Amino acid sequence: MEYSTLVRSSIVRPDSFRGRAVCHGHVPFGIWLIQSLAPKSLVQLGTLDDSLYFNFCNAVRAAGLRTKCYAIDHAKRNECSGYGEADTFADAQQHNECLYADISSLLYLSCNEAAPYFSDASIDLLIIAGSHSYEAVKHDFATWLPKLTGTAVVLICHTNVRERGFGVWRFWEELALRYPLHMEFVHDSGLGVLQLTEGTGRFCLDWLRPESVDSQLILDYFSTRGVEQWRQCGNPDLPHELSQCAQVLAERDAALSEGVTLRHELAKRNKAIAEIATLHHAMAERDARIADLREAAAERDAMAASMSWRITRPLRLAIGVLRGEAAYRARLSELLGRKAGVAEQPTALTASSSGLTGVCDSTASVPGLLASALPELASFMTYPDLSPEAVGRLTLIVTSLGTGDLSSGVDTSILLAVLLARHRGLRLRVVTRDAVPEPLKFAAVLAANGLVYSANVEFEYSSCKADARALADRGNELIMTTTWSTTWGALRSFDPSRIIYLVHDDERLFYPAGDLQLRCREILCDTRLCFVVRTSVLRDYLVSEGMTGIANNSIAFEPAFPSATYFKEAGQTGRKRRFLFYARPECPRHLFLRGLEAVAGAIEKNVFSAAGWEFFVLGSDIPSITLPGGIKPMVAEGLPWQDISALMRQVDVGLALMYGPQLSDPVLALAASGAVVVSSRFGPKQSLDGYCANIACSEPSLDALVVALGQAAELAANDPQRQGNYESARINRDWESAFAPLLDGLPR
Q: N or C: which end of the chain has fewer CB within 10 A?
């Protein structure tokens, strides 16, 4: 074999799909192998989150072959993919449809599920890329061996990884003893190559024999090229020339698909429409300001021309001079023939005299004053979405979507939006109001609650500022809001009958009596909206408070706490019991100070002792705390949800207060994890036995809470009764069943 043959055959421009930097070092060899074998069929098992498979497809297209390519991956199981996720599969599916739909198919199945769909002796080239343990790779090889032709070639990735539980290397050693035609590259985690039996023609791969001269030539050449490729793909500081090359490739790839070109033109048109809408909005504000100024000028001229104004002119001049006002003193100087100084302009209306934030122009319009005082209530700028797609859309509007947010309302809205979009086949768009969204938060919420969503999600940021980005509006999409302020803005931009407001709190209690509380009440009384209320306890309270919108059109649901995360963990013999205080000092309604008083009072009355109990404080913005007896509780702050749920599973008694009608999530989470919990009463929230008998609802007075903590400690020590209450609890364990009554009852 000539060296030049290798060089010419392996020069193919890499595929543009950028996944993890895995197996990139074997792309040059893979491309050459495809061109040399010209297989009729190719199957790869697992790891669609790297570019190996698409480089195979790219080689097929570059060589003009008629190879049928298949990739099999399933994020739910590790037997084919140790790292993949459903979103990765969605990205790969989109990339495949744009570039390789005529030669490639992606199957979202496990290896076992996919095998029956292939005939025996039908596959020329098999790549096992996702299995990492010895048992998994051995199982995959045995499952797919009957599907291979007699002279088929098998590629096995990760043959040179000997850590983190990888066992591919051990199985490869067994295969090398069984099949004489084999070769192994040791760079980039290793790649094993073997042929089942010796073939003829293009399948005559004598270079696979270890004693072959060509074998060493191929190993040397592709090891060198592979290491070079791997370094480029793993280097975060790629040269500027590579980014320019990527741009050229992206432009070429776009030209390959007429659909991509059309979408590009459509995006340009929509951007132009958005700019026109922005201009129209600015012109409307300008015209309104001009109209206000003209009206004020007309009133001024009419007043100045009136008889009373002319008669009282001397009196106004005298009063102004006596007050020392600069303008009147300058006018008097002019009348007396003196040289007038520069008169000071009248002082503008300021925050101290008006009660409004900032300095306001004395000629500002009423809408302008409202916009400056209440910027969070701004409407959304929209433009018509004229795209021809027939699929409907659900737009979820939240204040923010950040990985550090502590908001059960946002988490619940994500779960409901995903299930509703999936149930009705809608596209999903997430719009944030206060900060740029972080998609990782979205993925973390789904993972924490055991939900999988493989469809594409659009993320947009539309702030309350005047230069906010305009949103495309199809005219018939569903809008889901999560606060009264986002609902207020949505009402001025979208059809009210298509707005779903997810109510997770009585937001009126967040404000003193005034404009914001008034507007919040108006939203809750708006009968045009559809309300989804978190817990029937909160819904009953809002109805009793006269919220006519809630009474007229609302559905209540109970939150879910999946048993895979929230369960009673067996206690370790001899360890101390554990007490947990859920503390949110930055949120007054969580009664942080009253909770501290209650814990201290319980310790002083020997309900809890340092000898028998460990003390934890869970929450955010927690100050340094010393309890009676010099007890320093352990602070759990800024933990990921996995660590928080693990801590809850070891709690015996918990305290989570809420000065409001809503039911605090930690109360149900602790009860679902087997703890005895003390919470506070408010309005109709007098007893929570309907959820679990291990939840004690107490008056928020200090004495009542200390008594309740003593009773909770006694119940926690009574293992049979505590276990019986836990097993008979009526807490939802599955979000899909929790939201099932809503999915068909919400607006369409």
A: C
The 3-class SS string of 508-549 reads HHHCCCCHHHHHHHHHHCCCCCEEEEECHHHHHHHHHCCCHH
User: Hey, which residues does 395 pair with through a beta bridge?
Assistant: 429, 479
- Give the integer Cα–Cα distance in Å for 205 and 194: 10
- Alpha carbon distance 735, 746 (integer Å): 16
Look at residue 145 in the predicted model and tell me its pLDDT: 94
Phi, psi of 378 (to 5 degrees): -65, 145
**Given a cut of 80, is residue 692 above it in pLDDT?**
yes
Whole-number Cα distances in Å, 436 to 405, 441, 595 = 13, 12, 35
Dihedral of alpha carbons 643, 680, 616, 729, sign:
negative
Per-residue b or e along 417-454, where b marks 16 or more CB atoms closer than 10 Å to that residue's CB? bbbbbbeeebbbbbbbbeeebbeebbbbbbebbebebe
Comparing CA positions, the residue from 712, 685, 682, 714 lying closest to residue 696 is 712
**Pairing state of beta strands 68-72 and 104-107?**
parallel
**CA dist., res. 167 & res. 533, Å (int):** 51
Q: Which residues pair with 580 in a beta bridge?
A: 616, 654
Task: Using alpha carbons, select from 33, 110, 113 the residue that is nearest to residue 74.
Answer: 110
Per-residue pLDDT, averaged over 573-600, amounts to: 91
Is the CB of residue 649 less than 8 Å from the CB of residue 569? yes
Tokens describing residue 537: 């306890």
Cβ atoms within 10 Å, residue 657: 26
- Spatial strand order in the sheet of 499-503: 457-461, 427-432, 393-398, 478-481, 499-503, 530-534, 554-557
Tell me the HSE value of 554 on the side-chain side, using a 13 A CA sphere: 28
Distance of CA 244 to the CA centre of its chain: 31
Q: Which residues contact 401 (CB under 8 A, 6 or more apart)?
A: 410, 430, 432, 435, 437, 438, 439, 441, 442, 459
Determine which helix (DSSP H) or strand (DSSP E) holds 194, and give its type and residue range: strand 191-195
Is the distance from CB of 480 to CB of 394 less than 8 angstroms?
yes
Strand partners, 577: 613
| Residue linked to tokens 């101290």 | 352
| Residues 130, 47 contacting (CB under 8 angstroms) | yes
Token pair belonging to 124 = 């020329």
Q: How far, in Å, CA of 410 to CA of 416, rounded? A: 10
Other beta carbons within 10 angstroms of residue 546's beta carbon come to 11
For 299-320, the pLDDT digits (tens) are: 666 665 665 555 566 666 666 6
**Is residue 112 pLDDT above 80, yes or no?**
yes
How far CA 551 is from CA of 484, 527, 543, 546, in Å, comes to 16, 9, 5, 8
Q: Please say if the pLDDT value at position 610 is more than 50.
A: yes
CA dist 146 → 157, 192, 511 (Å): 20, 20, 70
Using N-to-C axis directions, what is the helix angle for 439-448 and 641-648, rounded to 10°?
30
Q: Tally Cβ neighbours within 10 Å of residue 732.
A: 17
Show the tokens assigned to 256.
């390959």
Q: Which of 567, 729, 726 is nearest to 646 (CA)?
A: 567
Sheet holding 123-128, edge to edge: 104-107, 68-72, 41-45, 123-128, 148-157, 191-195, 182-185
pLDDT confidence of 672, banded at 50, 70, 90?
A: very high
Ramachandran class of 46: left when φ > 0, alpha when ψ lies in -120 to 50, beta otherwise:
left
Residue 94 identity (one-letter amino acid): Q
Strands (E), 541-639: 554-557, 577-583, 613-619, 634-637
Residues 553-562 pLDDT 10s: 999 999 999 9
> What is the distance between the alpha carbons of residues 532 and 499, in angstroms, rounded to a whole number?
11
